[in-house]
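Each lists chain and fold; for instance:
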Amino acid sequence: MEKQARKNINLYTIYELFGYDIHFYLVIGIFFLTEVKNLNVTEFLLLNTIMAFFMSLALIPSGIIADKVGRKQCIIVGNLSWMIFGIALIFGTDFWQLALASMFLGIGYALKACSETPILIDSLTLLKREKEFGKIEGKAFSIFAYMSCAFALISGYIYTLNNYLPIILMVIFAFGSLVLSTFFTNIKPKEDTEEKKPSEAGLLKETAKHIFLSKRLRALLLFSFAFIGIIVISGDFSKIALQETGMSVTAFGIIQACFWLFIGVGSALQFKIEKYTRNKTFMICSMVYVISFIIIGALGMTHLAVGVGLIILIMFNQYVIEGVYGVSSQKYVTNFTSQEVRGKMLSILYLVEELGATMFLAIATLILDRSSSIYLSYIILGVLFLVIFTIVLTYMKKRVGLKPGEYTKEDKRYENKKEYIHGIQ
């Protein structure tokens, strides 16, 4: 089994290289769906909402299925879902066919998310090399950042050569991921003879109970539920707004590449930004983000010649904040937790985020459909989120950002590993 574990670790980075099939679609998706498949922007948003909804439904069951059936099998099904989605994009003739493919993609994406990183962790754990996880995952993330920019640039250009070429490449890369995933091996870690470990279902149940009782975690998850909503809307609205300027798909690809770079900048600077914002990182990020929404809407409504340039600069700032949030949210949610509970805590965070993304994307789709103006929708949603975050931040005030000694015993209940293990037996 140790031989198979080493093979998994060596295969992981190579496998990650083929995991960029998604970027061929993310960059040119709105152009392809509106220009080639003749969908409107509301239907574009609705497809994304459908995928997010079914992913949120499948997240918790996917973790249980991966434990029971095998992570390798779940990864294979996830990659197969991307292939099916790509084929549906090529041959699909109406919205409902693409909606069905989006449903399957959401489920498959959840299976991948709950299995890819854990199969690496399982392998490292068996070899007692857990400390190498950060190094390996960090290397994969660096490749991810650079490759995301490269694929964004490539996708815009090759779309001008042939509208279907980026989608065909997506299917090819998904097939490559599918083939590589068949070489993974499910790892069964060595049994811990010193103490009996709780079941996965027990861990999940106790983690959920801990969150319910912890005022700090309830506040953090409430914030994440709302903030991921405005982030996801921003990602889709920025594509719609830029497309409406009439810019070429090549220029669009270059700007999308810059967006990925600025997410990386935000992630890299998270520690320094947090140092200056102290315990008000989330408050400052959310208020700046909301105000930028309203400003983008106002600039777009004025139709000024310099408006497009200013809007793009504001969008760059939004993506920096997205990078900061991505690191901060995982850090804050997993504070005061042991290794056993940490993964389950993140699973619940991802579930809450997907539910938030689904709900707020649905609201944004309805608002855009009724207003028929992307910039008026920016303003309406900006005002809506201003009200939401005023309430959320008020709720968080005496629950988050405190000194370690000011948190309750329940907030820090699982800071000690043994307390967690014995607490659920």
